[in-house]
Amino acid sequence: MTARRGCLWAVVILVALVVLAGAFLLGLLVGAALSGGGFLWFPGTVAVLEVNGTIQSGEQAGLFSSGAYSRTFIAQLDRARRQPRVRAVLIRVNSPGGDVVASDEIYREVRRTRQEFHKPVVVYMESVAASGGYYISAGADRIVANPNTLTGSIGVIIMLPTYDELLNKIGVKVYVFRSGAFKDTTSGIRPLRPEEEALMQELVNRAYQRFVDVVAEGRNLPRERVLQFADGRVLTGTQAKELGLVDELGDFRRAVQLAAELGGLRGEPRLENFSRRGGLSGLLGGLGIT
Questions:
Q1: Which of 200, 221, 242 is the last residue of a domain?
Q2: Which residues are catalytic?
Q3: Whole domain around residue 258: which residue ranges?
Q4: What does pTM read for this prediction?
Q5: What is the rounded CA–CA span in Å between residue 171 and residue 232?
Q6: In angstroms, rounded to a whole number, what is the distance separating the alpha carbons of residues 282 and 1?
Q7: Are 246 and 240 in contact (CB under 8 A)?
Q8: Residues 45-101: pLDDT tens digits?
């Protein structure tokens, strides 16, 4: 009886030790995952996202849709920054610009990633990061560009074609019933009146002032200095660095290294792509036809 009781106690103690060891190991794993690095099983990562093509509002939908959609990108960014293992965010920008509202929405979320989630953001500019492409880049902690990247183009433009002469030539007459004097300003069926031209120019001016503020705030530059080159001119990466619009000239590898450094990662960082490529380009890419 005594020997049997001794064996029982030995089993109980052994089970308790196994449970304690398991709990200790689980604590190490969870702690490593939450800290984002320093442990083999849960290394910290650099999240990689892409802004590729014309910047547009809304969500990407349909097989043949292309461009960078603000709501889609923001959802991807939000998923990345909420992951404990993600220590830094790297955004690859290859865009000539696009919708001013969509650009501003992305810019605000890039800033929010830094300020509220306390995760550094690095932008790598590829072939083109101009106009709205630069707008969203200005929200990052650091910007790396290729010396030959085309960037800048800080400005706003609205184009309203009119086809009233064409309608007259083909004998088409349009009757307009409007609720106010400016309701058909953008219809294109007649020339603009002077007051309409002034109205449209005011819209451009207000959006432009916001763009200048974004660059000055994001790059920590005096507003007067930004105004000196915020005239729509396109700049190379080298010229942009000379003006303070870019931090470094380098390649994607350097951008990865910089993101890892800002995120406190040691050694070669593991990259995690959060941009799900949609549309026809994503399909062809999956088939190896890119």
A1: 221
A2: 131, 183
A3: 42-153+233-290
A4: 0.80
A5: 40
A6: 72
A7: yes
A8: 999 999 999 999 988 876 666 889 999 999 999 999 999 999 999 999 999 999 999
